[in-house]
Write a structure and sequence with these properties.
6-stranded parallel β-sheet, 45% helix, 377 residues, 5-stranded parallel β-sheet, alpha/beta
């Protein structure tokens, strides 16, 4: 067999994963993705449910949040709704999706709104996307919804653009492994008009939203993020198709190294490195110094490494101090071309007296491209 006839390992792996998934009887996940609340994700999901029902499919509502929007509530009519589980927490009754009831009913298609939702304390699983995994493993097809600001790797970008910290997130793997992503898109002007007309939030809440999160520049930025995230999914599907059909594809084997410490800012570095690796179709390597830490530092580092694992990064402990003597040999051995580092601005005189890790690293490994992310003051 010649070099040109040799099968592409990535194509073989992708095909094997797909065939394994199909043969396992696992359900399929379809996600309606929006840039922000009120674009019509839930309405589109319910519209699909009515179409499927008219075609004779067995459809049931596992959990749909209408937010008291009349048009959305009207779309629930005629659909079977599986009763919710009632959980008492601090004297308050909270309704959550009843996964066990859905498994007993076992519909062919189940609607599950807001996949990034955090379940009430006392639930069997912390996050709703974990509930969805149970349904998919049982062979139930799931149709769900998600706003782009809830995707983990985009969390810090959304905060920097809008000033709003989104607390509920889903790992990128939930989006990556979805069988289909459907973007529900409207312009910022149309979204603000819906808000002003009371179609998204009640009047008092709508006025506050229009002056805050729903400012036009915020919506425009979120819309662009959603469009790019969807385009990324399309590009990955196209790449897989090209590999499987053995067409010419010239990949650059890129490795992105992120050096993290035991501070919360390290998670920002990982997200930045992940986006860089995705853009170059490379892999992400997260290195940390293996030394004694305080309880607080250990906790922060644990959260950082957990995020790295969620983003499918390769974790590497390094022995020694944060110096070029520790990092440069690893870079050379792994063939790393890009390094992401935290940057703390320092005066010129200070840098002359004590060169930074960046300066020393560039001197030791001049072929490496260093990407600096400024620490917040």
């Amino acid at each position: 067999m010649t070099e040109g006839e040799r099968p592409d390992p990535e194509a073989l792996l992708a095909r094997a994963k797909r065939e394994e998934r199909e043969s396992s009887g696992r359900g399929k996940l379809r996600v309606y993705l929006g840039a922000f609340a009120g674009v019509g994700k839930t309405y589109a999901m319910l519209n699909e449910a009515h179409r499927r029902k008219n075609y004779g499919e067995d459809v049931a509502v596992g959990f749909v949040e209408t937010h008291r929007r009349p048009q959305t509530e009207s779309m629930l009519k005629g659909l079977e709704i599986i009763p919710r589980k009632r959980i008492e927490y601090r004297g308050v009754i909270i309704e959550e999706m009843d996964v066990e009831a859905i498994l007993r009913r076992r519909p062919a298609v189940c609607l599950v709104d807001e996949i990034a939702h955090t379940n009430a304390p006392g639930s069997e699983r912390e996050k709703r996307y974990e509930d969805v995994e149970i349904l998919l493993d049982a062979g139930i097809n799931v149709v769900s919804t998600l706003n782009v600001q809830h995707v983990e790797s985009l969390n810090d970008t959304v905060e920097s653009l809008t000033g709003v910290k989104v607390r509920e997130t889903v790992p990128d793997s939930v989006v990556d492994y979805a069988d289909e992503i459907i973007l529900i898109d409207i312009s910022p002007e149309a979204a603000r008009a819906r808000m002003e007309h009371g179609n998204i939030y009640p009047p008092e809440q709508a006025r506050a939203a229009l002056q805050g999160f729903f400012q036009k520049q915020n919506l425009a930025a979120l819309r662009e993020i959603a469009l790019r995230r969807t385009a990324q999914e399309v590009d990955e599907q196209l790449d897989e198709y090209m590999r499987e059909t053995a067409r010419d594809r010239k990949d650059v084997d890129e490795h992105v190294l992120v050096l993290v410490d035991a501070t919360p800012f390290a998670r920002t570095l990982i997200r930045r490195g992940w986006r860089l690796a995705q853009a170059m179709k490379g892999d992400l390597v997260v290195a940390y110094l293996d030394h004694e830490l305080s309880d607080t530092e250990r906790k922060d580092l644990g959260r950082t490494l957990e995020l790295a694992e969620d983003l499918n990064a390769r974790l590497v402990p390094l022995r020694g101090a944060a110096s070029e003597e520790t990092v440069a040999p690893f870079i050379e051995a792994e063939g790393i071309k890009h390094v992401v580092l935290a940057h703390t601005p320092a005066g010129r005189l200070h840098r002359l007296r004590k060169p930074s890790l960046v300066d020393r690293l560039l001197a030791a490994a001049p072929e490496v491209t260093v990407h600096l992310v400024a620490r917040p003051r």
